[in-house]
Design a protein that fits this description.
mainly alpha; two-stranded antiparallel ribbon; globular
Amino acid sequence: MNTTNCVCGSGKLTKDCHRDLNPKGPVYLLWEKYLSLDTEVQRLASLGKVKSFCGDCNQCCSDYFYISATEYFLIKHELLRILGQVGFDQIIQRSLAQLASLERDFPAEYEKLGNKNDGSPFYDTAVRKFKPCPMLDEDGRCMIYRARPLVCRLLGTSYLYATCEVIKAHLSHPVARLWRKETNIMVGVAYDENFKHNVDYFTTSKGVAMIQRSYPLCYFLANDKLFETNYQLAVTGTSLAYADAQLG
């Protein structure tokens, strides 16, 4: 019986929380990466080297951005735990409507999502402010905050992601500029090569490198059935088995 605390950071025992995850699988190992990032942010914050500019808002939760398949699988797993299948299906319907809006308003971006040869997470800046994230509840709060993807975790703790107008206002303040010069506000663990593993980069049992295709969250949700087999592998299988299946 597992008597260790769950890797998700809930404070519960693994047997009472994410007991169905394979400890050698992509989703479990991504939880470990998230935990290491959160721990590093807390450590740097205690040393005065990181300061989160984010407040209690959701201004960036309408941004259009790409996430890896593993990040989606972790989010899906959490949604099913929290909302059950009925609630998850409702979010899929919301995402289908968002994808239809993308096709209507930004046809070039929509066409790129269906092009197997174009996996680049770059898009016309006109689409950046798109629709409220399908993870927001009726009060505008993130339903899966603990399971949020990397881009959400880094916003506010790294100046590379300081695109929010509220953060820009903080950084333009004279005191903030002085503080910024004297301290390192980069979260180093986020850019470590090892961090890529189990986020978007895998190695097969034969040593072949495999990089996952990224998509916006609404695309993953709207096309959930296409990713079902990989989702099951990511939850119950090992990372090697997952990688081998992608290239097999």
